[in-house]
Amino acid sequence: MSSHIVASFDEDLVQIQAKISEMGGVAEEMLSKALESVQNRDAALASEVIDRDKALDAMEMELEEAVVRVIALRQPVANDLRVLIAAMKISSTLERIGDLAKNIAKRAIPLSAARPMRLTTSIARMGRETLAQLSAVLNAHASRDVDTAVQIWNQDYEIDEMYNAIFREVVTYMVEDSRLIGVGAQLMFIAKNLERIGDHTTHISEMVYYIVKGNTLGDDRPKGEPTGVNLVAG
Q1: Which of 234, 157, 161, 163 shows the shortest CA–CA distance to 201?
Q2: Residue 148 lies in a domain
Q3: pTM for the full predicted model
Q4: What is the pLDDT of residues 24-43, one digit of tens each?
Q5: Four-CA torsion 88, 94, 100, 103, nearest 10 degrees
Q6: How far apart are CA 58 and CA 6, in angstroms?
Q7: Considering all CA atoms of the chain, what is the largest pairwise distance in Å, rounded to the nearest integer?
Q8: Domain holding 38: CATH number?
Q9: pLDDT exceeds cutoff 70 at 49
């Protein structure tokens, strides 16, 4: 980060970066615990994740107010303005990731009392990959690592393909045994939430690229083949 004549401007930018890092840590923690609550059938841990979402919402509001204040007082240009614009977009993205982690935790509660399904291991594998990509892109943002950001952007199709495979597996299980329809539906929603988190992660990659390069990555991001049914996560 370049030095400014007004030292307090540098302090403002450092504080905003720190807030993004804090939000990223909370989002990672929420997703990790949400996945753990699914894997371990832990309703209490799922409830903890649901409650944690309020803190992430508050952080987003605080960061947005800080960015608006800095823009109004400092009238930044060039790279500084890109950093601030990206900070607002990333904070909004992290808040959405928190919402999706909360939704996963909500699904974990009824699953904790339901008949276990073998597919849970596939969800865990998809969850690990999604969490790893989120962690990597947050590190890329902190270090302004464009190469890693682009790599993650190009890897989103892997999450999409995992979702498509899980979708097909769940449908097969539900057709074979109607008693699994309730559990299968919950797992479908969890997988869709993870797929959406993957999309949000690539958006953070785009913001890292924008900060460093000053332009966008484009609209040709690799995607997996769409499934026959488009689920809306809730």
Answers
A1: 157
A2: yes
A3: 0.89
A4: 999 999 999 999 999 999 99
A5: -100
A6: 29
A7: 69
A8: 1.20.58.220
A9: yes
